[in-house]
Amino acid sequence: MDTIRNLPETEEYPDTEVQKDQELTLEEWQEKWVSRKIGFHQEEGHRLLKKHLDTFLHSGIKLRVFFPLCGKAVEMRWFSDLGHSVVGVEISELAIREFFTEQSLPYSKEPIPEIPGAKLFKNSSGTISLYCCDIFDLPRANIDKFDRIWDRGALVAINPCDRQRYVDTLLSLTRKDFHYFLCALSYDPTKHSGPPFNVPDTEVKKLFGMTCNIRCLENVDVLEERHRSWGIDSLFERLYLLTEK
Ligand SMILES: C[S@@+](CC[C@H](N)C(=O)[O-])C[C@H]1O[C@@H](n2cnc3c(N)ncnc32)[C@H](O)[C@@H]1O
Predict the structure, then answer these.
(1) 90 CA closest ligand 1 atom index
(2) What are the structural domain ranges in the chain?
(3) What is the model's pLDDT at position 151?
(4) pTM to 2 decimal places
(5) Right CATH number for 17-244 from 3.40.50.150, 3.20.20.450, 3.40.50.300, 2.60.40.1880?
(6) How far is CA 214 from CA 1, 48, 120, in A?
(7) pLDDT (tens digit per residue) in 164-203
(8) Which protein residues are within 6 Å of ligand 1, measured from CB?
(9) Integer angstrom CA distances of residue 40 from 56, 109, 122, 152, 200
(10) What is the atom index within ligand 1 of the atom nearest the CA of 68?
(11) In this predicted model, what pLDDT tens digit does every residue of 43-56 receive, in sequence order?
């Protein structure tokens, strides 16, 4: 059974310095897909998103939902089936192709003139658009802004030195009244180098506190046996709802 408890007043592992120089290149991420090191992928989708789906959708109108660093997240299908428009960005073309194939969705591929080498993949009804490029290049494609963001395995995967730039990029893509759902992980960063990186509550407040209202909806013990091989014996996932201040 997961433990769900209130946010502790003091952060257990507030140390972000120890991982600050950790970096993965885009090629290393692409290689993870080729060598099947994709233990982060959740075939059944995310339990906390399922639980908070009504809060996420909230307005009942047709929404534009953004999945930064989307991998082949099955939740993209959930939103498209509910009539919403989904946009993802992912550096691995393999991940994107696997998404459409596993979801049995025929798809097309086209170049993105503003970003040399980047490609846009779309299902035939046009409800799911996945950009194959570095997230930091995405604003150059002049895409429409978003009502919702589902950030799972994204902020925690971005190199610590790029976090503020990542947050600025995402917030520049939001519409008024956006709801940004963020999953952050907290563990002892002296025991595991990441990714995923340790993103404690203090870091979330530092990154978003100036511009967003921050509400912690869940704080869940998500330690599984496989995480013990990282050398850690405690892993908490927090789900935050970020809205415009
Ligand atoms: C930890 S995985 C999470 C995938 C997905 N969000 C999920 O929950 O399953 C991070 C993903 O981000 C992609 N990625 C890493 N850095 C990226 C970047 N700068 N731009 C676009 N995609 C990136 C990786 O290829 C990988 O698929």
Answers:
(1) 22
(2) 17-244
(3) 98
(4) 0.95
(5) 3.40.50.150
(6) 27, 17, 32
(7) 999 999 999 999 999 999 999 999 999 999 999 999 999 9
(8) 26, 29, 40-41, 69-71, 73, 89-92, 95, 134-135, 152-154, 157
(9) 22, 26, 24, 10, 19
(10) 6
(11) 999 999 999 998 88
